[in-house]
From TrEMBL:
Family recorded in the similarity comment: Belongs to the LysR transcriptional regulatory family.
Lineage: Bacteria, Pseudomonadati, Pseudomonadota, Gammaproteobacteria, Alteromonadales
Pfam family, one: LysR_substrate
A biological-process GO annotation: DNA-templated transcription
Domain annotation HTH lysR-type: ranges: 10-59
Keywords: DNA-binding, Transcription, Transcription regulation
Top-rank taxon, per record: Bacteria
An example molecular function term from Gene Ontology annotations: sequence-specific DNA binding
Name of this protein: LysR family transcriptional regulator
Amino acid sequence: MDSFEGIFEFVAVAESGGFSAAAKKLGCSTSHISRQVSRLEERLGSRLLARTTRQISLTENGEFYYQQCKYLVNGLQQANEQVTQQQYQLNGTLRVSAAGGFAENFVAPALMTFAKDHPELSIDIDFNSRMVNFIEDGIDFAIRYGELNDSNLIARKLISRSMMLVASPDYLAKYGTPNHPNQLKSHRCILANSDHWTFNIDGIKQSIKVSGNWQSNNSNVVLDACEQGLGIAYMPDSTFTKSIKQKKLVPILAPYCITGATSWIVYQNKQFMPLRARLAIDYLLEYFAKWPN
């Protein structure tokens, strides 16, 4: 059994790229990680890691050994979790990074329901739109909106929503109602993440450059500004449901609005993840699969 010592630590170093990150991942000291990996190398009689002052990389033997060991580690963890899942009480802290009004207004309440089913579990949601380092920041998964660029991450579609263009009755009474997207160039538009809005014009997606006197990357602030008559807003339709029912906002140019505003669950491409993260992801995917929008 001594031959198995150090394998978990070695795999953690290989996947996280360093001793400190591996120690944080496994909840132990950096010296323990270094000691276990060194002992593993001594037993094998082969150098697995190339260490420099700036970085740690796998040797040729290390890469071969990692490819074999990662399946062993993954299989052992999956076996343990499957055996204990029925009686296992989720605990620890689930750390989520989220951005956007959809995450605030819909994902967070869904996770609150999940938390009620697992009272020993702590949930920490950090609302920001910055790029996160999943290992260094200790993030289990993130909720992101729109186009994703990082191919090193796994992205699973949570939901796609139609876009909607709205304005307050007061604004439309004062400035008139546009009947074509090109007329938005002469209107006050409330900007969120971009000053280029895309519409379906004659069956083709076309981008219209707009401008205005109010801009915010927070959808709730954009919504409030629109209700106050500061301009026209263009966001996913679920943002405006309540305001439209209350007749605070009016949809306009509906035939031109595009579909496919997508929110994603994003997480690190790794061989295993904590049970709490995996079950939370599965819960959110199932929850929003039944969502009316």
